[in-house]
Design a protein that fits this description.
By secondary structure, the chain is an alpha+beta fold. Among the domains are: 126 residues, no CATH class; 142 residues, no CATH class. The chain has 16 helices and eight strands. The strands form two sheets. A five-stranded antiparallel β-sheet has the order 4-3-2-1-5. Strands 6-8-7 form a three-stranded antiparallel β-sheet, with helices on one face. The longest helix has 36 residues. The chain starts with a helix and ends with a helix.
Length: 415
């Protein structure tokens, strides 16, 4: 390059001579074309062929995100700027225009290259275990936004020929406006950091948020929105900051525990509750699950009645009830069920009676969290309960239906 300048000066073609400017422009143009052809027609094509044939995932991801294409354009801009500085007269309009355009070119493609690098890192991190715990997409989007703002300031300062510090100092007066414009991205970035730091949510979690109609699996955590694929295959979009400001339910703890809770009541008709007769006791004691309970309970009641004998009134004697015996049988039935976990809470309890009878609540955990299996186990348990409850002389409470009323009216008419 220096020899070319010396030769031009020797023949009277200084840097400001029109002929030298034309020749310098021609050299810049030819160099740009040669560099472009070498990089894009030779180097990048060779790399793409090798990455396509290779089984390495990182090579394929780099090619798909065009990282080296954008780096090549950045290098072309750098070479163009260097040529403008060396071949064109300093302070001239041509040098200033070409150098400014080259700088803008370099900054733009450097920004795009950085975006591609972030995309490559994001896709590669998808295979890492730690990545599922972090909302990386929202964090990377926040970094992209900040990078774009910085490069934007640098590009404007290059165009107007002023220091970036002057533009940054002028932004102080526009802080309120910028906060309003970028409110959602800023809140989303802060919310994403909070979600990650407190391990509140990750991709694949089962999220339930009735306020937004969300009940399904998290499929995307972005800078400003979180997408949930509901169980009916609809997509619900939730503002990211709403997950910090509002309450939501994350079912990942249940899935990690390996057991899903059954918490359902059956309503017993209170008028069907009574003391067991000797015939009923003799029949129920033949049940394998009830025999230990009835033997110990009968011995306990007999001993108490003997110690407090004298008055044979039912009010002064103890007897087994059908509801108590049913509760004992149900408890043993659940403890011996092969699909319920014995190492987690398991009980049968009475709730406060009401207009719908006496609620008898079953509280247990299945040994699976798969939804279809869970529903099948729960249905099988209650199918059996409804079928066996009459063996204890109990009735399930049910609000009278129109058919019940017609039967009653028919009996009244016949009477």
């Amino acid at each position: 390059m220096q020899e070319l300048l010396t030769t031009l000066n020797a023949y009277g073609f200084g840097l400001h001579h029109p002929g030298s400017l034309a020749m310098a422009a021609l050299v810049i143009l030819l160099t740009a074309l040669v560099v472009h052809l070498v990089l894009h027609r030779v180097v990048l094509r060779t790399f793409e062929k090798r990455s396509t044939a290779s089984s390495r995932l990182w090579l394929q991801i780099i090619t798909q995100n065009k990282l080296f294409h954008r780096l090549a354009f950045t290098l072309q801009g750098i070479i163009l700027n260097v040529q403008a500085v060396l071949l064109l007269p300093k302070g001239g309009d041509a040098a200033m225009i070409i150098s400014t355009c080259a700088q803008l070119w370099v900054m733009l493609y450097a920004l795009l290259s950085f975006f591609s690098l972030l995309d490559v890192v994001f896709e590669l991190s998808g295979n890492a275990a730690f990545a599922s715990q972090l909302p990386l997409k929202g964090i990377f989007q926040g970094v992209k936004l900040i990078s774009a703002l910085v490069i934007g300031i640098l590009m404007i300062s290059a165009l107007i020929g002023k220091s970036p510090a002057i533009l940054i100092s002028g932004l102080g007066a526009m802080a309120a406006v910028l906060m309003l414009i970028f409110k959602d991205p800023i809140l989303g970035l802060v919310a994403g950091i909070q979600l990650s730091a407190n391990t509140m949510l990750k991709l694949g979690d089962w999220l339930e948020m009735p306020k937004y109609g969300a009940d399904g699996a998290v499929i995307d955590i972005g800078l400003t929105t979180v997408k949930v694929r509901n169980w009916d295959n609809t997509i619900t979009t939730i503002p990211t900051y709403a997950l910090v400001s509002d309450a939501f339910k994350n079912w990942s703890g249940m899935q990690a525990s390996g057991g899903r809770r059954i918490k359902r009541s059956i309503n017993i008709d209170i008028t069907s509750i009574h003391f067991l007769s000797e015939e009923e006791q003799a029949r129920l004691i033949r049940a394998r699950l009830l025999k230990p309970y009835m033997d110990s309970r009968s011995a306990e009641i007999s001993e108490w009645n003997q110690e407090n004998s004298g008055d044979e009134s039912v009010l002064n004697r103890r007897s087994m009830t059908n509801i108590g015996t049913f509760r004992a049988w149900l408890n043993e039935y659940l403890r011996n069920h092969p699909r319920l976990r014995r190492d987690m809470m398991l009980m049968v309890r009475q709730l406060a009676p009401g207009p719908d009878g006496l609620p008898l609540e079953i509280y247990a955990f299945t040994n699976t969290v798969v939804w279809m299996e869970y529903e099948g186990i729960q249905a099988d348990i209650f199918d059996h309960i409804f079928a066996v409850v009459e063996e204890f002389g109990l009735r399930i409470h049910q609000t009278p239906t129109g058919n019940d009323m017609r039967i009653l009216a028919g009996h009244v008419q016949r009477g």
